[in-house]
Specification:
The structure is a homodimer.
Chain A (H helix, E strand, L loop, with lengths): L10 H6 L20 H10 L2 H5 L2 H14 L5 E2 L6 H8 L1 E3 L5 E3 L6 H6 L5 H4 L1 H14 L5 E6 L1 H10 L9 H9 L1 H25 L3 E6 L7 H18 L3 E2 L2 E2 L2 E5 L6 H5 L5 E3 L6 H8 L4 E6 L8 H15 L12 E5 L9 H21 L1
Parallel strand pairs in A: 1-4, 4-5, 5-8, 8-9, 9-10, 10-11
Antiparallel strand pairs in A: 2-3, 6-7
Helix pairs in contact in A: 2-4, 4-8, 9-11, 10-11, 11-12, 15-16
Chain lengths: ~375, ~375
């Protein structure tokens, strides 16, 4: 690979590895998205969301859009969370104005037994091409994050046939309680698929990877361990740890998983993502400093007046510090939203947020 | 009041007060509801859900329906969570196939400043009549639970104009971050209204009360304390503690509040409700035995085969015990679902659940 392995701005990677940083790095979940008019314009040209995902040049274009507006410290591959089940043959589609759906939800035992992990370099070639294209286009400016859904989260969509939240995950949870053997088989195959998929992204140029366990929080304490966390642990253990001589850090994010962060920190990942319900300082006290933390500004806090947004960003930054004198430059915290940015967010507010994170963490460090 | 103060089966009240019980008592959130054909029949006769709520005789009828099918250890007033805002003049209505809505959502500053707490004995007379009617009809068999939504949860509906979840609570959260003074005013008036409402229910015959903070879990750690918990603390402090010479225990339930149970236990309530994401044993270790715990079977676990449902019920019961030899008859645990029962639940499964809770907790006690 031609690009240099270590980006010019590597604060994001250093923060994840708990190494000293110049300031607290920031990126935003779903930073390339519908709140940006230029994104909507590219999507229109692509024809549909799925065509946008499957076109490496256009995926690269939208990945870079937020970076030219804001001083973000990382890029994240623009793609859909459901590319893996789509490559498994479930037939992903998007009905206008609705969430993702599958033509062939996974419910019959024969179909579950037939499930196989796709070869990412064949069936998900378009993703790998996008990763390589984005990495080249970044010119070593900031690191590129690859990602995947967690096996449990993917299984929710696969079994429900779309988002499970309107039906309280009734179908997949009935399988969980009634036929755990079938669900475990789905999770087992999907885990293999996710390991291959993330390692192929790393081989194509991803410099960090994130696992989105968006629906882990709907599980009971016991079921979370058995049906989600175990499989994420297998993924983390199976990931390529060093590429081009550089460590490739991993971030694990269970939305609604604030009660379980000690267990998440134990699976071997480098960082734990937190939604906005968990206090960063409490999390640090509970986990210790064995992993970095990523988060956790409430995305619905982005609609307040600029000075209120800035004040809340400072509060989140300060909540991470063990004491007021602690330098932000110690690393260990990546600022982010606690969930994806809302499509209604004013882009000007994003600029205020990003700039406040940088200026406040530099200032706090200078004072510290 | 003519009925005897202490019901014949008072296991529920004793468990809440951490006094010895004969077995672990059980009731189910939304136990009078759409999963029962006889409920649907009464609702049809009433004309609409709201007419059913506002008719004390019919509200009494549906409250008692699950008790004649299952060996439940408590009755809960059949009513809607939004009766208080309706009595404040917001105009509650139900569009067919949709959730509750308000004709006049609370968004303008003048309307917020105009808000006043209704007199429950005038504007919510139908609720008090239902409480008295149910209490009479129970003939001292099991205790009657009164309830209210928490101020934050009611404010979500009042400001959003209906359920906030489709829009991620954007309107009410924008008020929270941008105009906290306005939101605090709504919460302040609503808190007074809820205290009056619950005390009127107690005066009419309710023998325990529960505060449903259904949407507390969508708040950040900091906002939860400031905008939900503080107001619930004021309510608990303002409740009538003794009626007819008997203690009236209070239960506080924040759905999605598993991270905050230590703080909830500190507000002076007798019991903390837990959704299914929190392990009962962990909760007990964190809180100590200063409050009782209520919960926490996953409502989506009710669709499995009967033997799986029974096994999961035993697992939940066993998770409460500090060690296997501990007698269930020590009190401190009220078995419930972690959220309202689904309308699709087979009634036969409810019978299995209730009977298993009783038989398993008697058996474990006999062994202990």
């Amino acid at each position: 690979m031609s690009p240099t392995a270590r980006p010019k701005n590597d604060n994001f990677l250093r923060a994840l590895l708990r190494q000293p940083v110049d300031y607290t790095p920031v990126w935003l979940m779903r930073q390339a998205g519908r709140y940006l008019p230029e994104y909507n314009e590219t999507r229109r040209r692509a024809g549909s969301f799925l065509q946008l995902c499957k076109n490496p040049q256009m995926a690269c274009e939208v990945t870079l859009q937020p970076l030219s507006r804001f001083e973000l410290d990382a890029a994240i591959l623009f793609s859909d969370i459901l590319t893996v089940p789509d490559a498994m043959g479930l037939g992903l589609y998007f009905a206008e104005g609705e969430g993702p759906k599958f033509e062939r939800p996974l419910r019959e035992e024969w179909a579950i037994r037939d499930l196989t992990a796709p070869d990412p370099n064949v069936h998900l070639r378009y993703v790998m091409d996008a990763v390589a294209e984005i990495r080249r286009a970044l010119h070593g400016s900031v690191p590129l994050i690859g990602f995947s859904g967690s096996p449990w989260t993917l299984a929710c969509y696969m079994v429900e046939g779309g988002s499970g939240s309107p039906t309280d995950y009734r179908t997949v949870k009935t399988m969980l309680y009634d036929r755990p053997d079938l669900l475990h088989h789905i999770l087992d195959v999907t885990t293999t698929a996710v390991i291959d998929y993330l390692n192929a992204q790393i081989a194509s140029g991803a410099q960090a990877v994130m696992i989105f366990d968006s629906w882990g929080g709907v599980l009971s304490h016991a079921a979370y361990r058995e049906f989600s966390l175990t499989y994420m642990q297998r993924i983390v253990a199976g990931l390529t740890r060093v590429a081009d001589g550089e460590r490739v850090p991993s971030i694990v994010f269970t939305k609604g998983g604030g009660q379980w962060i000690e267990s998440i920190a134990d699976i071997g990942c480098d960082a734990v993502g937190l939604d906005w319900t968990t206090d960063l300082g409490d999390a640090r006290r509970r986990i210790g400093d064995r992993v970095a933390l990523q988060g956790n500004f409430d995305p619905m806090g982005m609609f307040a007046a600029p000075e209120k947004v800035a004040a809340e960003a400072c509060r989140v930054l300060d909540s991470y510090a063990a004491d007021p004198a602690e330098a932000r430059t110690a690393g260990g915290h990546v600022f982010n939203l606690g969930h994806g940015i809302s499509q209604f967010t004013p882009p000007d507010t994003v600029k205020i947020l990003v700039d406040t994170v940088h200026s406040h963490s530099r200032r706090a460090s200078a004072q510290g």
